[in-house]
Amino acid sequence: MREPKRYSAGDWSLTFGLAAVGCLVIPAVGDMISAPVAVTAVVLGLIGIGRHDTGAAPKVLPAAIGTALGALALFLVVLMLVVMGPGG
Questions:
Q1: Best CA proximity match to 5, nearest among 52, 53, 59, 44
Q2: What pLDDT is recorded for position 26?
Q3: Digitized pLDDT (tens) for each residue of the chain, 88 residues in all
Q4: What is the spatial distance between Cα 58 and Cα 33, in angstroms, rounded to a whole number?
Q5: Contact 71, 42 (CB under 8 A)
Q6: DSSP type of residue 15
Q7: 47-81 burial string, b = 16+ CB within 10 Å, else e?
Q8: Rounded to whole angstroms, how far apart are CA atoms 49 and 17?
């Protein structure tokens, strides 16, 4: 009998990174939603990369892409806040 697939921190990082970038297109509330999701993607991505370095995770690409997408989303949120101001 096959064992069900376990999703690693890198897989979750990729999922949260894509969600963070996707949330940026939502007007008005996208920044508030995207920022915590992006932070989660970065943290899970760093955990996934660390697990790959120790040999506990077989693949590093989803963790690296999720970390990059999360960082990109965070950068865009900060950029939007600087350009438009906190009042929006």
A1: 59
A2: 86
A3: 666 667 789 999 999 999 999 998 887 778 889 999 999 999 999 999 999 999 888 889 999 999 999 999 999 999 988 988 766 6
A4: 31
A5: yes
A6: H
A7: bbbebbeeeebeebebbbbbbbbbbbbbebbeeee
A8: 15
